[in-house]
Amino acid sequence: MININKKLSACLDVVRKYEWLLDAYVLDFYVDDHWSKLPQSWRKQLEDLPVEHLSELLQHSDGVARVLWPLELLALRQVLRSLCIRRSPTKQIDVTLPSCPLLEHRKLKHMFMKCVKPKKSHEIKRMAAICARSCQETSISFVVDFGAGVGHLARVLGYGYGINVCCLEMQAALNGQALEIDAKLESMAAKHLDDSETIHFKRPAHLTQRLSSDTTPEQFIESIRHAFQLSDSNFSFGIIGLHPCGDLSGTLMRMFLSCEQAKFLNFVGCCYQKMSTRATHPQMKLHGYPLSSQLQSADNSRLSYEAREIACHAMELYSSRLQSGDYEYLKIHSLRAAAERIIVQHLPELRHSALRNVKHVPGMSFNDYFQKAIEGTQFALLQATSPDQIEADLLHWRRIVCFYTLRLMLAPLVESIILYDRALFLLENGCQVTIESIFNPCISPRNHITSAIKN
Question: Closest by alpha carbon to 129, among 94, 104, 168, 105?
Fold first, then answer.
């Protein structure tokens, strides 16, 4: 705990020093002249730097340096390496994970991952193996999957690993789809498997319920008891969550700590920008951040929306685009920032409003981008004016790539603060806690699992 305390304090000191960079919206780049805010030595080095060399700033491993960076940037990169939680999974994790042969079955593997994108498939398989390992290491009756959706993770655990799963999902329609997929999988299994191969099958229980900070432990336990038709509350379970959004991660931790029957917790968070904080929601009693007593009493623990939002971006993917010289794609930030200047000139009260997402294609002009971006929005009748200004802005698209890269360089620091805070909260409440990188960050940027076991 002492180590986490020290790292948290050091992380927050760095955040305070570079708050001006973390709290800057990239879409305000031209409006607020963000380039002028960079130290002169940085601007001098970055101005004519080939774009692909910027990827060095996003690499947290030693390699052959192609650029003689300003000393402050070199020092910052070294500090980030020492403070941030490792983002690359270790091979040692795979050695300890149980296998699930049914996921490779010629006929059934498609039922487990039907209509699942490769990113989600990667996450489900890894998360299921981690949770199966936790079940082996603790004496539990079943697991509760929060935000289960249509039950893909629960299906792998129930049919693949033979674990009883209670799925909590607030949308009844998704639970209905989950039941249909369960039935189809069982029908396929009856055709292609022997009875000895299906004897361990455990059909997930799907419960339509929304878990909030107002849900009491007694209500929660009663819902589970009802879902499994249990006669009493003499049971034990683990809590799992694959990318619970915003405050739901905090809610999972509080519920885990409040329920005597809950023995382990495994969750991978996401959408940090959607968390409530003391600054954004002072009227709330419970917030998504900070959670730990240390940060709740600290004066410098604040993390802005902009800082939490950049912490959710795909750093490794952007780094690969920099390395490959995928310049056309990188220009999209410049086009959006130029559009923001037009909005601020004509409708300043609507600054930072959402526009339509536009996929950049080679040769796309600003007018093409702008018309697609405002189509169907409240800006649909807005006309692009000041063509000379727009042209001058777009000539500096490399500057905005540099600025965005610098912000992205700090993204793991913000995420580490959030994860350290969660780990410290659990430690303060008597748990054993680990944080591991379990997904390939190039596939799944939010790839850290927080695991807790009660002492």
Answer: 94
pLDDT in tens, 186-223: 999 999 988 888 889 999 999 998 888 788 999 999 99
End-to-end CA distance of the chain: 15
What are the pLDDT digits (tens) for 148-196?
Answer: 999 999 999 999 999 999 999 999 999 999 999 999 999 999 999 888 8
Paired tokens of 376: 């169907």
Distance between CA 29 and CA 334 in Å, rounded? 8
Alpha-carbon distance 377 to 176, whole Å?
Answer: 34
Dihedral angle, C-alpha 121, 125, 131, 137, nearest 10 °: -170
**Residues whose CB is less than 8 angstroms from the CB of residue 416 and which lie 6 or more positions away in sequence, other chains included:** 7, 11, 83, 84, 85
DSSP string, 100-151: -GGGG-TTTHHHHTTT--HHHHHHHHHHHHHHHHHHHHS--SEEEEET-TTS
> Which tens digits make up the pLDDT trace of 103-116?
888 888 888 888 89
The residue type of 58 is: L
